[in-house]
Design brief:
There is one protein chain. It contains eight helices and 13 strands. With 364 residues, it is α+β, with helices and mostly antiparallel strands. It has a six-stranded antiparallel beta sheet with strand order 1-5-6-2-3-4, with helices on both faces. Strands 8-10-11-13-12 form a five-stranded mixed beta sheet, with helices on one face. It has a two-stranded antiparallel ribbon with strand order 7-9. Strand 12 and strand 13 form a beta hairpin. Helix 4 runs antiparallel to helix 5. The radius of gyration is 32 Å and the shape is elongated.
Length: 364
């Protein structure tokens, strides 16, 4: 269907009593169909701009618009030859949505448009060409404008399919994360039960440590499943939750202090969280309360993570990089620091009592 808007002398007004009422149910369904494309009030896209440029060239006209009809105005996704990005929507549903605006703005000018329909048949927008002077059109031009409208419809169909695929992928990812977290918690529970059944204090300790490590991984999965930021995670917020949960699990207060928030890639969250888990657990075992975590930004995109205690301090000759003589926990920490392409050091706590384990690493 082709809309031709006849020229008028200046702005027009209508008696509201003569305007056919929009059926609320149909209008709501039409707006819902438009909303599904996620196109209202979005930035310009080259594919749509090329279409309006071709439409203007087809009629040798200065203006071509690709618009989508919202609740109260028409949003111009592409506006070749015009700076306006919106126009008021006409109130008469029996007329094209842009008709009153075009009559007001262009008066004796020329206007031709083809409507755009959603996949379920609702009229959601238009592709139109405008000139400020009267024009004659040929049938081949109309056919080509309809063809360009078909290209827009195809692009919209691709857009809708991509949005639906993304939504389904997010649901699937959430379900996978939820099941993974439940499975990890189940494994941790089995390890805890097994530790209670053991008659060997050493085995009991190792099983509890293993359960704690599994729970640390589960905490990261929970963070991923609730994070909305694609690809990156606010690490300080994650560390704050981790410290709260660790405080409960180990029976000690683990405080996060002096932390500078930064979004880190998701692939860095797991090693950072596990490093804190290992170092805080070791500090609780060997030094007791209090345990403090700090996180600071350094120069050139590097960051510093510290775990401090006020216990008896490091044993004589302690070396965090020693190839042998370290416990499993420190070996795990060294491996995780390697994943971050960072550096691990240990020295006396600056407060004068206890120790400080510091990890410096770049944030991608």
């Amino acid at each position: 269907m082709l809309h031709l808007v006849p020229p008028t002398q200046g702005p027009t007004s209508q008696d509201p009593s003569l305007v056919p009422a929009r059926r609320p149910d149909i209008e709501a369904a039409r707006l819902a169909a438009l909303e599904a494309y996620g196109i209202l009030d979005t930035v310009a896209e080259p594919a749509f701009d090329r279409i309006t440029e071709m439409a203007a060239d087809l009629f040798n006209a200065p203006i071509a618009l690709l618009g989508f009809t919202g609740h109260s105005n028409v949003f111009f996704k592409s506006h070749h030859g015009l700076t306006a990005s919106h126009a008021p929507r006409g109130a008469d549903p029996s007329q094209p949505a842009l008709a009153p605006w075009i009559r007001s703005e262009f008066r004796q000018g020329f206007h031709v448009e083809v409507p755009l329909y959603s996949s379920d048949g609702y009229e959601i927008g238009m592709l139109c060409v405008i000139d400020r002077r009267p024009r004659r059109i040929e049938e081949p031009q109309v056919r080509r404008l309809r063809a360009l409208g078909g290209v827009v419809t195809d692009l919209l169909a691709q857009r809708l399919a991509a949005r639906r695929a993304l939504a389904q992928a997010e649901i699937t990812t959430s379900e996978v994360d939820h099941r993974a977290m439940n499975s990890l918690q189940f494994v941790a529970s089995l390890l805890q039960l097994q530790s209670r059944a053991s008659n060997s204090p050493e085995v009991t300790q190792q099983l509890r440590a293993a359960a704690n490590r599994v729970l640390a991984v589960a905490r990261v999965h929970r963070t991923f499943s609730t994070q909305e930021t694609a690809g990156r995670v606010p690490i300080v917020a994650h560390l704050r939750r981790l410290c709260e949960e660790l405080s409960t699990s180990v029976g000690s207060e683990i405080k996060l202090e002096g932390a500078d928030e930064v979004d880190v890639p998701k692939e860095q969250v797991l090693p950072i969280g596990l490093i804190v888990n290992e170092l805080a657990t070791n500090a609780r075992k060997h030094a007791g309360d209090p345990i403090t975590i700090t996180f600071h930004g350094l120069a050139e995109g590097a960051y510093e993570l510290c775990v401090l205690d006020e216990g008896p301090g490091l044993p004589a000759g302690f070396d965090v990089a020693a190839p042998s003589g370290l416990g499993l926990g420190m070996k795990v920490v060294n491996a995780l620091v390697g994943q971050l392409q960072g550096r691990l050091t240990a020295y006396a706590n600056p407060v004068g009592r206890g120790s400080c384990f510091k990890v410096t690493f770049p944030v991608g």
